[in-house]
Specification:
The chain is α+β, with helices and mostly antiparallel strands. The chain is 21% helix and 35% strand. A 12-stranded antiparallel beta sheet has the order 3-4-5-6-2-1-7-8-12-11-10-9, covered by helices on one side. The longest helix is centred in the N-terminal third of the chain and has 34 residues, at 3-36.
Length: 271
């Protein structure tokens, strides 16, 4: 073998060895990066601080749509567990699990199964530690619904969610607050949402003439129109009773619902 051919073979071998080590180091770097930095979808986002994610995971989570905490003291309302005066976290999320996988997972996670309604209501209920939990999946899409009910609706730890609730709506003596919520919404780049609803007290026929003395809904409607009509972006729909306006950083919506006997307040701002 002449010297020229030998040099070509040696260069080829050295090039192959060099390429091998380059590719090996690149693969190692990629593996290290993947190990040290999990994919975004594995990281719960838009989860309210305090939600017990370690005890009640979101199975095969791909995206959280919303996570809210509710406190309800309406005597006419019962929780998923047939209880009055209750507080719970509600999560709506996209899951990669089908309906059967979803139910099987949560039934195995429960310390005890309270009821299995998956055949008719597409829901299972159980106990996980101190929490009563319902898991729903309706099969028509990839959306899962989780409710985690707190042991006490008046737990002082709940107060932190509402300490900053904007005092936009002044309470009227005809109103009784029955529900409030705080949550994070995965829309418009992320929003914070506060809600309340109030029942309206009917003063009735006080002069005994066979007629209701005061139209409370009309009186409240006129009061709030007068109060908010000069706010930025004010709108009022007479037909639906929906009033909206801008108050500082909040998009405010007030709905006067005669059919429900309630007034609903919703406040949203960007995160």
């Amino acid at each position: 073998m002449n010297t020229k051919k030998l040099m070509i073979i040696i260069i080829a071998i050295l090039s192959a060895v060099l390429l091998f080590f380059v590719l090996k180091n690149k693969t190692k770097s990629t593996d290290t990066a993947q190990t040290s930095s999990p994919s975004i979808k594995d990281k719960p986002t838009f989860i309210v601080d305090g939600y017990p994610i370690d005890q009640v995971p979101l199975y095969k989570l791909s995206k959280v749509s919303s996570n809210k905490i509710f406190v309800n003291t309406d005597p006419k309302n019962l929780s998923e567990f047939d209880e009055n005066n209750f507080a719970y976290f509600n999560v709506v999320f996209e899951t990669e699990a089908n309906q059967q996988e979803f139910f099987d997972y949560y039934k195995k996670l429960f310390d005890n199964l309270i009821v299995d309604e998956s055949e008719n209501r597409q829901m299972v209920k159980g106990q996980i530690g101190e929490y009563k939990v319902s898991a729903a999946h309706y099969g028509s899409d990839n959306t899962g619904y989780i409710q985690v009910h707190l042991p006490k609706y008046n737990d002082e730890k709940i107060d932190k969610y509402f300490i900053d609730f904007p005092q936009i709506l002044e309470l009227n003596s005809n109103l009784i607050e029955h529900e409030k919520s705080y949550g994070l919404l995965n829309q418009k780049g992320g929003e914070v949402e506060y809600t309340k609803y109030f029942t309206v007290i009917d003063s009735g026929d006080q002069n005994n003439d066979g007629k209701d003395d005061i139209d409370e809904f009309l009186a409240l409607e006129e009061e709030y129109q007068k109060k908010y009509k000069d706010k930025p972006e004010y709108l009022f729909d007479q037909k639906t009773g929906r009033m909206s306006w801008k108050d500082s950083e909040y998009e405010s919506t007030l709905s006067i619902s005669r059919d429900h006997g309630r007034i609903y307040l919703m406040l949203r701002k960007k995160i």
